[in-house]
Amino acid sequence: MWPGWCNAAHAKAYGRIRLITGDITALKVEAIVNAANESLLGGGGVDGAIHRAAGPGLLAECRRLGGCPTGQARTTRGHALSAAWVIHTVGPIWRGGGCAEAQLLADAYRNALIEALKVGAASLAFPAISTGAYGYPKEEAARVAVHTIRDFLAEHDMPQQLVLACFSEESAQAHERALHELLPEWKSCGDAKV
Ligand code: AR6
Fold first, then answer.
1. Does any ligand 1 atom lie closer than 6 A to the CB of residue 91?
2. How far is the CA of 106 from the centre of ligand 1 (A)?
3. Which of 104, 117, 125, 127 sits at a 20 to 30 Å CA gap from 85?
4. Sheet holding 123-126, edge to edge
5. Residue 85 belongs to a domain with what CATH number?
6. Which atom of ligand 1 is nearest to the CA of 134?
7. pTM, entire model
């Protein structure tokens, strides 16, 4: 096999991914992803933070969507957020790994990326879906996230910039390890914090 095959296949992806530690609602990106629940009516964690920062207009718009099944994604406006769009997706609840959690988590990432394509978002930020209240182990979730994002970016020119917004050092380190493992060409841009 041509030894550069892997690098060539991923060349479109690695320069477009940034890893940061901080609050996703503070980011200056065109779209942010929300780790929501199937009701889309708000909750704790990143969902609560996004609804607080976006204001009541977001909940009003979410009410009209009628929910979202696990693994799917729905888009609203960003309301008071700096981001123009919020892409709500629902990750799986961790039940030990035998209930298609990895597939459903990959679906959540991929369907959020497809929504970003539909609205033409050039920059998109993801939280670490399912790794809080839903209990998905951080290392495994980071590998699913990076694998899915890498393959999507390798096949699509948009979004041009993708931010992995981690809320803790532990989460950032899990993503950094996954990036080094699955995308060896990826280089950290230092300790980016917001
Ligand atoms: N910015 C970035 N990441 C954050 C932020 C923030 N402001 N706040 C928390 N995180 P979780 P889940 C991280 O629980 O596991 C909600 O109640 C957090 O540290 O928000 O998918 C929903 O309504 C963790 O790494 O989402 C659902 O009911 C990651 O975001 C349920 O929780 C995801 O944690 C969804 O659970």
1. yes
2. 17
3. 104
4. 17-21, 161-166, 123-126, 31-35, 85-89, 73-77
5. 3.40.220.10
6. 15
7. 0.95
